[in-house]
Amino acid sequence: MMNIKRTLELLNNDNRKEVYMRRIFALTGIMLFVLGMGAIAADKFHIYTDKNAPVNRFIPSGWMGDYGDLKFNDQSQESPFSGSTCIKLTYTARRSGGNGWAGIYWQSSSNNWGDKKTGFDLTGFNKLVFWAKGKDGGEVITLVKVGGIQTNSQGEKVAYPDTVNKEYGPIRLSKEWQKYEINLAGKDLSYVNGGLCIVFYADQAGKEQTIYLDDIVYTYDSALIEESAKTNFPFYVYADSSSLDNHFIPSGWMPATAAQDIKLDINSGNNPFSGDSCIKVEYKNNSGTRWAGIYWQNPANNWGTVPNAGFDLRGAEKLTFWARGEKGGEIINEFKMGGISSGEYIDSDSASIGPIKLTTEWKKYEIDLRGKDLSYVIGGFCWATNIDVNDPEGIVFYLDEIRYEKE
Asked: Is 177 helix (H, G, I), strand (E, B) or coil?
């Protein structure tokens, strides 16, 4: 009793009681706030609700590709889906960096490409939900991604890699807000640095486009089950320039001087075999290298340095395509699939035909894939030729309907 009495006397001295009580109330308030946040985090983990919302996580700092083609506004008041703001993202598709694509990663800390241990443990969530719309309708998001920051630009594993790499898309937007969901059931979300990634390709966009995003959140759905991996055939490399069925990107220009020698138009309206467009290729020996070619890759510029990027095309028995020459007599030394073998994550096999002499009429060609290991394909299609077997002034040829087929 004497100790308690003495303590109260000391608290009364110099107004210490008031000071101590204020500290106690302050600490209690902080504890209640933290507990409240924990309850919210138990069923939702937000990337974006409104500008500067305290529950927002991840930072849109990882700008990639032709990042000069992107305009970003995360406080747009142009008809948000909910709240007072939304994200407005414009992609000009001007290819300002020569890549033909651009994207943004929302990262756990600013510009964290796997060198800082700031990722979140999102175990317990199994779905990423977001709302999106286009300014005019018809805008295309080529890829939406969760995780995937696992190697650097040289293909070396980063210090703190994402434990998940999930891709979704492409998506063609409407003028009205629509809800999209990425199924993450069965995925390892124990370390997520790349909380969201949005990628545009110039070939699919076709022109400048503006999209809007809102209410981006991780959540849990008890009815959700793990998706089974399945490839549907025909599996297109190229259908039409704007087709969402297209896979692989014509990014692997060979050799280093190829940009001087090749002109590529994937939206040529010059007598396509089918649909509204075909691929037009012009080749001239401007550099003096005397040969050139292009690989269609996944993702762009992947020479075997990107993990988990290959398509499983087992079940396909042939790769078919249609081709013609501008004048007839154009010779393509080789048409090929697979064969990228210089990196750590290489094609599982390759197959080719050639040389082929083209005519002025469309003709169908086939690459036999029977007996090939198609479990991991990053080089979906390739052509190569040289000036020595062609007109010294150069050649023009066309391609269309490039696809993997079953019998």
From this structure: coil
In a 3-state reduction of DSSP, which class is residue 76? strand
356-400 pLDDT tens trace: 999 999 999 999 999 999 999 999 999 999 999 999 999 999 999
- Which of 216, 62, 270, 273 has the alpha carbon at shortest distance from 281? 270
**Per-residue pLDDT reduced to its tens digit, 155-191:** 899 999 999 999 999 999 999 999 999 999 999 999 9
Threshold 0.70, pTM exceeds:
yes
Q: Are residues 208 and 241 in the same domain?
A: no
Scanning 236-362, the segments in alpha helix (DSSP H) are 258-261
Q: Where does the pLDDT of residue 237 fall: very low under 50, low under 70, confident under 90, or very high at 90 and above?
A: very high
Q: For residue 154, what is the DSSP state?
A: T
Inter-residue contact 153 to 83 (CB < 8 Å) = no
Do 241 and 113 lie in one domain? The reply is no
Domain co-membership, 96 together with 155: yes
CB-hemisphere CA count at 13 Å for 62?
A: 24
Side chain identity at residue 132, one-letter code: A
Please report whether residue 386 resides in a domain: yes
Residues 242 and 189 in one domain: no
Residue span of the structural domain in which 369 resides: 235-405
Half-sphere exposure of 49 (CA within 13 A, CB side): 11
What does the alpha-carbon distance between residue 251 and residue 380 come to, in Å, rounded to a whole number? Answer: 11
The encoded tokens of residue 280 equal 């037009």
Q: Within 10 A of 317 (CB to CB), how many other CB atoms are there?
A: 16
**CB burial class (10 A; 0-12, 13-18, 19+) of residue 193?**
buried
In three-state secondary structure terms, 29 is: helix
CA atoms within 13 A on the CB side of 17: 8
Given the DSSP bridges, would you call strands 44-48 and 59-65 parallel, antiparallel or unpaired? unpaired
Torsion-angle region of 83 (φ positive above 0: left; ψ -120 to 50: alpha; else: beta):
left
Number of domains making up the chain: 2
Same domain, 203 and 128: yes
- How many Cβ atoms are within 10 Å of 102's Cβ, its own excluded? 27
Question: Same domain, yes or no, for 123 and 150?
Answer: yes
Q: How far apart are CA 2 and CA 72, in angstroms?
A: 67
What pLDDT is attached to residue 153?
83
- The model's confidence at residue 223, banded by pLDDT at 50, 70 and 90, is very high
The verdict on residue 315 lying in a domain is yes
Element (H, E) at 118: none
